[in-house]
Structure formats: structure tokens, C-alpha cells
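User: Run a structure prediction on this.
Assistant: Running it now.
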Amino acid sequence: MEYPSKLIENAVEEIAKLPGIGKKTALRLALHLLKQEKVEVHNLSEALIRLRENTRYCDQCFNISDAPTCTICNSTKRDRSVICVVEDTRDVMAIENTGQYFGLYHVLGGIIAPIEGIGPSDLTIEPLVERIFDKEEKVSEVILALPATMEGDTTAFYLSKKLKDSGVKITSIARGVPVGGELEYTDEITLGRSIMNRQQL
């Protein structure tokens, strides 16, 4: 593709690095930004810079947070005896949107995927194990809300083995979530029912 300007080309190359965006869409976005007021483009760029530089993760559950402890972990209205284990922040958002779950979370930051070189040590599994075995936490149930994929099942199996001596009930969300499906793309009714009809492992 021929570009009328090196600046346009550089912008397209960078925008096209975002997931799901090809060169044509990147070009359309770059041209759109050119038509905007300078202050709007500056606001966008500053928001992205602040996102990257200032975003942190909750010390307790590893969800994205603006403070050392996220609003969910800080809430006095949550059931602190139940922890829902998810792959990433998108899954927390998806489950929260169902309005069917009122416990706490633990974000693994991924799932075990040996082919991609992701092992247990690359995830927040050890902090989870410490939370579960900490008697002061008084956790009675861990819900494994992981993708219905081979990697998700491998991770669930690994976690159930690590936690089996904790005396805590280990459950998994019901298979209303389709096999091979990602939680963030599952409709809220199905996901809500999966949480409500979770199964013990």
C-alpha cells in the first residue's frame, strides 16, 4: 500500500499492531484522527500513556486496579468465603455483568499452555494457593471459571491438585459455556446460569 506521507505510514503501522485491526482499518482510524481537533488527539494519547504507566494490579486478586487493593476486594458487601478464579480481567467484567456472583476473584493472568511456553510459574497460582491455605481468609469455596478449552481444563486440573488438601470445596462453572468458548464472548444469561449451576470437582 502506497502512503502519501511517512507520518501516515508510521501511524498505520503502529495502529495495525492492535488486535483485530488490519492495515485498512488502521488507515481509516489514522485519517479519522487527522480530522479531529488537536486537543482530542492529545487527550487520547495522554489517556493511553496514563493507562500504560499508571495502571496497577490489585495486591490481593491481581485484577486491574487504580489502587493497591481493588474496589471488589475492598467491598464489605462481597462474600469473602468464595473466590472465583478466572483467566484475566475481561472474565471478571463478564461475570460481574451477570449480576449473579457476589464473592471475590483471583485473576491468574493467563492459563497453562505448554505449547506457548506458559507454565504454572508464569501465572499467579502461588498467591492463590497462599490465599486458600491461609486460615485467616476463611475461604470455603473456590470456583474455577476457566475457558472450556484443553488449556483451560489443564489449568483447572492443576489447580484442583494444588488445592485438594486445603479442605476447601472446589467447583467449576457449569458447561453452559460452550466448549472452545471464551467467557468474554459468552452471553450474560448463559454465563450467569453457569455460575449459579457450578459443579464440584
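The chain has eight helices and seven strands.
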